[in-house]
Amino acid sequence: MSKLAHAQWSSKMTFVLAAAGSAVGLGNIWKFPYMVGESGGAAFVLVYLVCIGLIGLPILIAEWLIGRRGQENPINAMADLAKRGGHFPAWVAVGISGVLGGFLILSFYSVIGGWSLYYTLGSVTGNFSGKDADGIGAVFTGMLGSPGLLLLWHTAFMVLVIGIVARGVTNGLEGAVRTLMPALVILMLVLVGYGITTGHFGEALAFMFSPDWGAVNGEVVLAAMGQAFFTLSLGMGIMMAYGSYLGEDVNLLSTARTVILLDTVIAVLAGLAIFPIVFANGLDLDSGPGLIFVTLPLAFGNMAGGTILGLMFFLLLTFAALTSAISLLEPAVEFMEERTSLSRVAATATCGIGVWLLGILALLSFNLLGDFLILGFNIFDLLDNLTSKILLPLTGLGAVVFAAWCLDRQGVAQELRLSGGAESLWVVVARYIAPLGVIAVFVNSLVG
Ligand code: PFF
Ligand code: NA
């Protein structure tokens, strides 16, 4: 396989958009608010922001560096770079666990993508109009209780993902992301505006930003770190795979800043949109994965033009989920395409069907398999916890340690366009702060 033959992004802009498209997704709008709600609010938010800056940023850059130098799928890239530098062959484990993590995450991500599709349709057919909190709640529980319905929408979502990935990553992605991101931000602002009219905005602000430090424990910090990994698509091979399509001209540091800023702004806006509605309607803060699916339809049902706004919102949520899901399948497909004789289409179908099957187990945990517990978790929660709290952080840890300790320091400094104090800062953060941060959180949550 000639290195030169490896495809590249058509422009710097496409890369930025694809990386942002991967980062911004259900993690921001669906997961962030419910994690904040479950973990007690502001203390979680602030720990999360620290994790994004001190751990997320260096690991994002480390993954791009590895991908760009390897110019191959994450598994081969790690194997080659380790070999070239005379390091342990075992470093390949970082690539393997990344590809595996992406695969596992997509299985349950697709189930939620399916909910989003179902709610898009429900907005069109007026399924939510004129309902109170109980009525909206009943739509949600009804959906969860129906394996057939969940299967239908999970399948529809996976068919879309497979269809797009089979045609190649860059086709169509650029245009989609370029229009959808701004639309998403505007719609979130409209929702925040609605939150202000509920009269409970102050309460929401206090909940999100005025911390009760007593609420911080090992569990909260681990959850915050896991969310930082999840939301930035770290530890899953994605950013490594995307980096492998990257030319030398892209400035990694400034690109990382852009992606992180956008991702964080959208997550915070989602929180500011959702919590006023939660307080205004006396809903449960810790209603978990269902949070946005019970709060937002309620808001849309009560505001002028709510039907059309609701439709737009769930459509955008679906698109955001799709652009992330596409990125999740990519590392596994890239691997199969480069390592086996399968064509791109066949590789995509193979991986996609595997993910789809696993997703069926995940969706059954809301109904038929609800009592089937492994280590005290149902299958959905097991996949979620296993990936975001263990697999992603460990893979990210491996990536940043490898980039900071095993790649040549001068070369990396040049590549990141850093010199002097800025370069030393990078070295301190990437060699010590980020890895020790990840390790400390683990140890703390084990003993805590
Ligand atoms: N970063 C995406 C989000 O926040 O929704 C989710 C995600 C995409 C997680 C891709 C992991 C991933 F590899
Ligand atoms: Na995200």
Can you tell me about this structure?
This protein is mainly α and 448 residues long. The chain has a single domain, classed as Hydantoin permease, CATH 1.10.4160. Helices cover 77% and strands 0% of the residues. The protein has helices at 12-23, 26-38, 42-70, 74-84, 92-124, 133-145, 147-166, 173-197, 201-209, 218-231, 238-243, 252-280, 291-302, 306-339, 344-364, 379-406, 409-415, 420-447. The protein is globular. It starts with 11 loop residues before the first helix and ends with a helix. The mean pLDDT is 91. 4-fluoro-L-phenylalanine (PFF) binds at residues 22-23, 25-28, 102, 105, 230-231, 233, 236, 238, 324, 327-328. Residues 22-23, 25-28, 102, 105, 230-231, 233, 236, 238, 324, 327-328 line the site of 4-fluoro-L-phenylalanine. It comes from Billgrantia gudaonensis. It is found in: Membrane. Keywords: Membrane, Symport, Transmembrane, Transmembrane helix, Transport.
Offer a concise description of the structure.
Keywords: Membrane, Symport, Transmembrane, Transmembrane helix, Transport. With 448 residues, this protein is mainly alpha-helical.
Characteristics:
single chain; 448 residues; mainly alpha; Hydantoin permease; 18 helices; 0% strand; binds 4-fluoro-L-phenylalanine; binds sodium ion; symport
Q: How many structural domains in the coordinates?
A: 1
Portion of residues in beta strands equals under 5%
Residue-averaged pLDDT: 91
DSSP helix fraction: over 70%
Number of helices: 18
Question: Distance N terminus to C terminus?
Answer: 49 Å
Radius of gyration, in angstroms, nearest whole number = 21 Å
